[in-house]
Specification:
mainly alpha, two-stranded antiparallel sheet, disordered N terminus
């Protein structure tokens, strides 16, 4: 299995995803604090990291987000880092109203509590994001 790193378009084999993301973002700008990186916001970093984790390019992330599990992962991550207040997030997730957004967040939280594999995936991605953001 290979992971395509979207930041530098280099293929890595059998590397820990957290270490990979940490190293690539450190090399990319030399700064880990998102506030100091021009043109990168939390939403784009979260989407890039989720795309790397799912093994797709950012352009193809919409296809992966059609699967509920991936959509729920993104919603929980965006909620965790206070990024849910933009219209661009609704467009990306193809969510029409705030009511449906809250419903999907509730379902994501329920899945987090019930599904061990989903919880482990979320926590692995969140651990990597905590090092970056």
């Amino acid at each position: 299995m290979h992971i395509l790193c979207l930041v530098t378009n280099i293929k890595f084999y059998n590397l820990n995803i957290i270490d990979l993301l940490w190293e690539e973002y450190r090399k990319f700008k030399g700064v880990i604090n998102v506030k100091n990186v021009e043109g990168l916001d939390k939403v784009s970093i979260i989407i890039n990291i989720l795309a790397v984790y799912l093994g797709v390019e950012v352009k193809e992330i919409n296809n992966k987000l059609k699967k509920k599990e991936n959509k729920y992962l993104l919603l929980l991550l965006l909620e965790r880092y206070n990024c849910l207040n933009g219209e661009n997030v609704k467009d990306l997730l193809e969510i029409i109203s705030d009511k449906s957004m809250k419903y999907n967040i509730g379902k994501a939280q329920e899945k987090f509590l019930v599904n061990k594999r989903f919880r482990e995936m979320y926590l692995e991605i969140q651990e990597g994001l905590n090092k970056i953001i």
